[in-house]
């Protein structure tokens, strides 16, 4: 057998993904262009940063977290200046800060180089996430990942923070699960949770579908692998840099209500109870109620829901009830929203709401102290139209997904002859436990 004969099947399988990879590269490039006004000097002026809509955490944190001189988690800095991210992101920041220091002697030039290097990784993560998502979606829905590649909100939010890395790991986890490679799925899930905390919501989705199908061994193998991978990357920092390691968890617990959260509206308007009670308690209680509803739905549905549907509902519930809802959080939800219900009308409506929020938050910050530029910014009421625009449009998509679960004949994915393109061991599985079985 010649080398050409060996390579041809692989090349043939790769060709359908090439256009999607090019579109994802286009989206990554457009995201870089969006921030060029800041990269060429705008980051040094808050007004310029906000009016050009090119804010990013990457550049200022290079200075504010002492990356120019010290290493994350081990830095000799006040506790509130430690890196407030899980360890995978902290180590990415450390590696790129080392390279930036080696390439540039000047700290300002280092910060720009640090941004460029980070953006390259994030762009690669977007391309990888799109290609992995296409593999999960399968041949019948291959073009659905275009929403992830070039959606306006994705382009605008891509380089605000490091979220695209967790997105690629999450899509890798979903593909590994779909291919019944539970150990790999668990390792990728553990790394994703050690990158950004939101993939933890997928554990609940896997658990509920495992409960319904009785496929406990694959679930336990995946969870064991996830716990092992998480421990491998976290344990050295827990032992040797405890204060730096726990900064993320303390920050998450103690953080008050912040931009984008519906709770901010209730506080701003002085609503009784909703605007006065402890937001952490309210948020956790609200999330618990929604998750209970998702559990009932999963176990009561006439046909087993698809994994992507439950992942989407769980993640959307987490975002709506959270204390903070940053613009880049759209990157978490897009791939799962598309896999759950690839219908362009509600997705387009949601994208419009996300774009309006992206514009509104920076205009709103212009009008807030210390800038207080009312001539350039917007006030509370206008800003909160953007906050509720996101809540309402995501709520609409959640309602459609619930409808599809209760009426599987309305699910456009299953109309293509699929049971569950990401289901892995769940696909085609018989029900072992449902709420209806209790009544029998």
Model description:
The chain is an all-alpha fold. The chain has one domain. The protein is built from 22 helices and no strands. Helix 13 crosses helix 14, helix 16 runs antiparallel to helix 17 and helix 19 runs antiparallel to helix 20. The longest helix has 31 residues. The radius of gyration is 22 Å and the shape is globular. It is found in: Cell membrane. Keywords: Cell membrane, Membrane, Transferase, Transmembrane, Transmembrane helix. Belongs to the glycosyltransferase 87 family.
* Total separate domains: 1
Give the termini separation.
59 Å
Helix content: 55-70%
The Cα radius of gyration reads 22 Å
Name the beta content range. under 5%
How many strands, what sense, and barrel or not for the largest sheet?
Answer: none
The helix-and-strand class reads: mainly alpha
Short description:
The protein is an all-alpha fold and 440 residues long. The protein has 22 helices and no strands.
Q: Main attributes?
A:
disordered N terminus; 440 residues; mainly alpha; single chain
Please render the helix and strand layout as text.
Blueprint: H1 3-14, H2 18-34, H3 36-39, H4 46-51, H5 58-64, H6 87-103, H7 107-137, H8 146-150, H9 152-157, H10 163-178, H11 182-193, H12 201-213, H13 216-240, H14 242-254, H15 262-269, H16 279-300, H17 307-321, H18 330-340, H19 344-367, H20 380-406, H21 412-415, H22 435-439
